[in-house]
Amino acid sequence: MGKPKSRPAVTTSGPWAGYPRLVQHCGYERAAIVGHDRGARVATRLVKDHPDAVERLVVMDNIPTRIIFERMDAEIARGHWFFIFNNVPDLPEALISGREETCLSSFSRVGATTLNF
Hints:
Layout: H1 19-25, E1 31-36, H2 38-49, E2 54-60, H3 65-70, H4 74-79, H5 81-87, H6 91-96, H7 100-110
Parallel strand pairs: 1-2
């Protein structure tokens, strides 16, 4: 098995790099952005990277990542294991690659938040 590709830190320079052009193409100079749950993190990053293209920002049902990790202890880590797992560079891809169906079906059987390690 080859080395998994590294993934960059959360950024809006990739798929979102064209966001200002998209807003202008739709006939606007700036647009309102709404982010929910994990999408709130993406929306926040978008505003930081392209502030001139955003009129206002709404983020809902999201605890800032900084707060989550400041309060992290063993009990919280067990309940939010997926934050930690998905933050380890290359590990999720290496463990799941080629086993996507097994991984997803295990989540649907027991639910992601009920997995206990």
